[in-house]
Write a structure and sequence with these properties.
Helices cover 0% and strands 51% of the residues. It has no helices and 30 strands. It has a six-stranded antiparallel β-sheet with strand order 14-15-16-17-18-19, with no helix packed on it. A hairpin with a 5-residue loop joins strand 21 and strand 22. The chain is globular and about 55 Å long.
């Protein structure tokens, strides 16, 4: 099915003018927070929006949200938290540095990277730092417990910040970019500079998982709510790897959904069902149901308006998206 024949949800989209490249999106309960390339954070709710100057005269490079906090890292060396009421607070500051990797834990901790140094601060304010072999490119907290995965050159490091134990090094040659844990904590997966994914089975062994064949780099990863599927960008379709078995996707063929003549730039699994939001470099967004591959059009292609960020709210009723040219919007699913 093409976007010209897919049933449409475009009438359910409330457009927003973010005014700058949308770097990342999070939800603060009923409010969508858009991190912007010009340093602002746009808060959108019920058709209205309010701009906050989180990083004045700088840019938001990375952001993360846990539903209560929208935390941004900027090229001004600051880590800033923005609340749904528009309040902002600087959590950390290192002059002259770029904060381009960041992670939040459900327990209230956060971590950020500056070059080789990664700093983690727990919910009680205790701060620990670790130096990894090369620049930290991606950070992700384990689903449970206070443990951090750090991607870098030639592998990934697993670190318990509050434990005096040597961090665990997961080796694989090459440059590793983003990193993610599976929701059941059995797998750690990285995207790579070499147009591939690499994964490690943590339980029961440390077996490797090589996922290749992408025409470009994969920079968007999204797990299904039950952790059985991992959706990825980087091809002219969403590539979805099966993780049901203890071996992960090894020996299995991934699914391809939403094949179009444009590369997928962002993917976001619905939190409760097998529905995947797929954003493309040409600005199009589709909702795809995995069970029967049926498609719904959310946004048609728009020139120079590629999709750069997407996020579902906690209940899966609304999908916020943002684009490279500052356009944005919120889809509300029909009741």
């Amino acid at each position: 099915m093409t976007t010209g024949t897919a049933p449409s949800l475009t009438q359910n989209v409330a457009p927003l003018d973010a005014g700058a490249h949308v770097t990342a999106i999070g939800w603060l309960k009923g409010t969508a927070a858009f991190g912007l390339g010009d340093g602002g954070v746009l808060l959108g709710r019920d058709g209205e929006s309010h701009r906050v100057e989180a990083h004045p005269d700088a840019g938001v490079l990375v952001a993360a949200s846990d539903g209560e906090r929208f935390v941004t890292g900027g090229d001004d060396g600051r880590v800033v938290v923005t609340g749904a009421d528009g309040s902002t607070k600087t959590l950390a500051e290192t002059k002259g540095a770029w904060i381009d990797s960041l992670a939040l834990s459900a327990g209230g901790a956060f971590a950020y990277g500056i070059g080789k140094r990664v700093t983690a601060r727990d919910d009680k304010g205790r701060e620990k730092s670790l130096e990894v072999p090369s620049a930290a490119r991606g950070l992700a907290f384990a689903p449970k417990g206070y443990r951090l995965a750090i991607s870098h050159y030639n592998g990934a490091t697993l670190w318990f910040p509050n434990v005096e134990a040597k961090p665990e090094f997961l080796e694989w040659k090459g440059s590793h970019l983003d990193v993610t844990w599976s929701p059941d904590a059995r797998f750690v997966v990285t995207s790579m500079q070499e147009n591939a994914l690499h994964g490690w089975r943590l339980i029961p062994d440390k077996g490797h998982m090589r996922m290749s064949g992408y025409p470009s780099k994969t920079r968007s990863l999204s797990w299904s709510g039950d952790g059985k599927w991992l959706a990825t960008s980087g091809a002219e379709a969403a590539i979805i790897w099966p993780f049901e078995s203890k071996e992960g996707p090894m020996g299995k063929v991934p699914r391809e959904c939403g094949v179009r003549p444009a590369k997928v730039s962002r993917v976001a699994f619905h939190p409760n069902t097998y529905v995947l939001a797929v954003g493309y470099e040409d600005g199009c967004i589709l909702l795809i149901r995995l069970n029967d591959a049926s498609e719904l059009l959310v946004r048609p292609g728009v020139e120079d308006s590629g999709i750069t960020a997407m996020a579902w709210d906690k209940g899966g009723k609304r999908l916020a998206f943002g684009c490279e040219d500052g356009q944005a919007g919120i889809l509300t699913l029909p009741a």
